[in-house]
UniProtKB/TrEMBL annotation:
One of its GO terms (molecular function) is ATP binding. Residues 301-436 form the ATPase dynein-related AAA domain. This is AAA family ATPase. InterPro entries: ATPase_dyneun-rel_AAA (IPR011704), CbbQ/NirQ/NorQ/GpvN (IPR050764), DNA_repair_Rad51/TF_NusA_a-hlx (IPR010995), P-loop_NTPase (IPR027417).
Length: 536
């Protein structure tokens, strides 16, 4: 900035500085445009000017490029952008919280249990930032003052992470992920190419066999103990296998061999269970139903549900709990039989030999094979599975093989429901459809259940979104699912918008962004905003 520009900024009247920062905060909080009238009516709370004077200042500021205005055909004016002038006035900071985007000095008294004397003692002991407090041990803080008891120290360490800049958590997580890809020989990060058909070892043996238990022993099978069954757990008959380290078994994110698609854990380190809806017609918890179907052997199961409802997570969770392999194949219009079972390839001696595809290898290993969006693949590929679905044997015509899968092998297909939102999805051939046990996985029906699930996922390591705000977001999401003309927010979408909040966006801005992101060409996100205002 030149000297003349600097002098100009200093000479600007204080009301314009206040106005620019007020608009900046409102744009950030609202996640988009702000009506001019709302700003002119509110500015008197922060500076002694009237609404007309405020409107004149904004017009003058627009001519200087400070404000960007959108004047509607009906005479309404909306502010769509602003260049804040000078430092944020204290009156705006006090009204909206810490300066937008600023770190500032750590004010430990922002923690409810920290008094002025405790804050002084913490600084004297060398704690300069909230990150320092979040990394401290209870024993380090206890006794720094006569009032800093062990329980108060625990409260400080639990509350401090909420004030740590998100960049700290992102940098630490990135370091952990990078460390998993470091070559032990060179000490440098490296790419990894994994052939999913290269894992040829079978899954573990059922625990009842390896540990000398009866087949019906409760500890040898999956027990449905989440959501509706939490108070009265139900044994399902789906046996637990004894090899949790098999490469196809889904791992918790804390496992040393966890990949990028690992399962999240809660504050206690346990894998976050899915929010299990009740199957609409059978009126049983879906995890219980699915486990009982899988316990019947190679009985094909069809999970039908909207995007982001948790179909794959439910299967993956059951595999994690029972140490079963999980092999997921995404189908599309170009999926051929050989993509599933493998092509015929030449050998070194000039002969032709079959090469196993991911579906065939999963069946040989005894994993749970999940075919996503099954109806969209070519009819020939689907028809090639008929004998497997009918008799439990896979006939690979190109290979001349009749494959009897491993006794632990299972098959699950997923698909979207035949509704307007998924009108581009192909209907399943009736001959194929009749071979599956069909279960519906709707979105979570109970607000409290979805809030609890989200809370466990997004607030596992530190609080990203408070419980009250989560509830409002979930309530709005349920509204979008009831109006077929609106963009629909799934549970997966809610985790993404919570990520935006962690990055620094306001809750309303994060919701608006995700509604915009999922909107189809014939849908208008703006149609939802009036209802969103009722919640946030």
């Amino acid at each position: 900035m030149s000297s003349s520009e600097s002098d100009s900024a200093v000479d600007r009247p204080e009301p314009l500085v206040v106005l620019s920062h007020l608009v900046h905060r409102l744009l950030k909080r609202e996640g988009g445009n702000v009506p001019l009238e709302r700003v002119t009516l509110r500015v008197s709370d922060y500076v002694d000017i009237g609404d007309q004077e405020a409107a004149d200042l904004i017009d003058a500021g627009a001519a200087e490029g400070i404000f960007t205005l959108d004047r509607g055909s009906g005479g309404s004016t909306t502010i769509v952008g602003v260049s804040p002038q000078g430092e944020e006035p204290a009156v705006i900071t006090e009204a909206f919280g810490g300066p937008a985007g600023a770190t500032g000095a750590a004010d430990f008294q922002a923690l409810e249990v920290v008094t002025e004397s405790i804050a002084t003692a913490l600084r004297d002991a060398g704690y300069a930032t909230f990150t320092d407090l979040a990394d401290a041990d209870v024993s380090d803080l206890t006794g720094l003052t006569g009032t800093l008891t062990e329980s108060r120290a625990e409260a400080i360490i639990q509350a401090a992470p909420r004030h740590v800049p998100v960049g700290v958590w992102l940098a630490r997580s990135a370091g952990v992920r990078y460390g998993r890809r470091v070559d032990e020989t060179t000490g440098r990060g490296t790419a990894r190419v994994v052939d999913i058909t290269a894992a040829t070892e079978p899954v573990g043996e059922p625990r009842y066999r390896s540990e000398g238990l009866e087949p019906d022993a409760v500890e040898a099978q999956y027990v449905s103990d989440i959501d509706r069954n939490e108070q009265d757990p139900v044994p399902t008959g789906l046996h637990v296998l004894d090899d949790p380290d098999h490469p196809d078994v889904p791992k918790a994110v804390t496992h040393p061999e966890a990949g990028d698609d690992a399962l999240p854990v809660d504050v206690s380190g346990e894998v976050v269970p899915p929010a299990v809806p009740t199957e609409p017609r059978l009126q049983l918890p879906l995890d219980e139903l699915l486990a009982k179907k899988l316990a019947r052997g190679l009985v094909p199961v069809r999970l039908v549900g909207p995007r982001g409802s948790g179909k794959n997570y439910l299967v993956k969770y059951l595999c994690h709990r029972t140490n079963r392999g999980y092999v997921s194949v995404d189908c599309d219009e170009a999926t051929h039989t050989e993509d599933l079972f493998g092509p015929l390839t030449p050998t070194e001696d000039g002969l032709i030999a079959p090469r196993n595809g991911p579906a065939k290898q999963a069946l040989l290993n005894g994993s749970v094979l999940v075919l996503n969006e099954f109806p969209v693949m070519r009819a020939g590929a689907a028809m090639s599975l008929h004998r497997l679905l009918n008799e439990g044997k896979l006939l690979v015509k190109a290979h001349g093989e009749l494959v009897e899968p491993h006794p632990s092998a299972r098959i699950v297909i997923t698909m979207n429901p035949p509704t307007r939102e998924y009108r581009d999805s192909e209907p399943m051939n009736s001959a194929t459809r009749g071979r599956f046990r069909a279960l519906e996985q709707p979105y979570i029906q109970e607000v409290d259940e979805e809030v609890a699930t989200l809370d466990a996922q997004v607030n596992a390591s530190h609080e990203v979104v408070d419980r009250g705000t989560l509830r409002k977001i979930v309530q709005f999401a349920h509204q979008t699912r009831q109006n077929e003309n609106w963009p629909t927010l799934s549970t997966r979408n809610l985790t993404i918008l919570c990520e935006h909040i962690e990055d620094g966006a306001s809750p309303k801005a994060a919701v608006k962004n995700e509604v915009w992101a999922v909107a189809e060409p014939n849908q208008y996100p703006e149609d939802t905003y009036e209802t969103l205002n009722d919640y946030l």
